[in-house]
């Protein structure tokens, strides 16, 4: 027994209609999954080759250059060990520095914003009670 001849879909026009719609449609903004995979693999290969080139350059330059220590500015906020070296050019005479400390304690006793315990300590240092 022979198989019956079945007309193909192309004869009915459904396939031709789908092809016409696909041709008339604008191109897709997103790549197909296969194209996206190929682009991702290409990007990974590019990054790997760039990393290898950078690593090779570092190895070559590292062999040529000697280590040089980094010179940094000293931290000016650190408390110095010897104060005579800090203000040596503009050092105050001892009498003036004592007067300044006296004025400091007087300001602490007179200021209303100072804690009462600090004010009591300042008064005790000045000899007031």
Average pLDDT for all residues: 80
Please trace the helix and strand order, writing H or E for each element.
HHHHH
Which regions have little confidence, pLDDT < 50, spanning 5+ residues? none
Q: Tally the helices.
A: 5
CA-atom Rg in angstroms: 43 Å
Bin the strand percentage: under 5%
- Gap between N and C termini: 130 Å
Q: How many DSSP E strands?
A: 0
Portion of residues in helices? 55-70%
Shape: elongated
Question: Structural class, judged by helices and strands?
Answer: mainly alpha
Main sheet attributes: strand count, strand direction, barrel closure: none
Describe this structure in words.
The longest helix is centred in the middle third of the chain and has 32 residues, at 33-64. This protein is mainly alpha-helical and 129 residues long. The protein has helices spanning 9-12, 14-24, 33-64, 94-110, 116-126. It is elongated, with a radius of gyration of 43 Å. It has a domain at 93-126.
Short description:
The protein is built from 5 helices and no strands. With about 130 residues, the protein is mostly helical.
Protein traits:
129 residues, mainly alpha
Question: Which secondary structure elements does this structure contain, and how are they paired or packed?
Answer:
Elements: H1 9-12, H2 14-24, H3 33-64, H4 94-110, H5 116-126
């Amino acid at each position: 027994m022979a198989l019956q001849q079945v007309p193909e879909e192309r004869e009915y026009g459904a396939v031709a209609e789908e092809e016409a719609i696909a041709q008339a449609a604008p191109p897709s903004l997103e790549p197909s999954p296969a194209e996206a995979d190929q682009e991702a693999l290409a990007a990974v290969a590019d990054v790997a080759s760039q990393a290898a080139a950078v690593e090779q350059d570092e190895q070559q330059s590292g062999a040529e250059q000697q280590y040089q220590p980094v010179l940094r500015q000293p931290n000016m906020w650190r408390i110095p060990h010897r104060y005579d070296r800090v203000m040596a050019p503009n050092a105050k005479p001892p009498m003036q520095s004592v007067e300044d400390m006296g004025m400091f304690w007087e300001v602490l006793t007179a200021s209303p914003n100072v804690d009462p315990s600090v004010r009591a300590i300042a008064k005790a240092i000045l000899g007031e009670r």
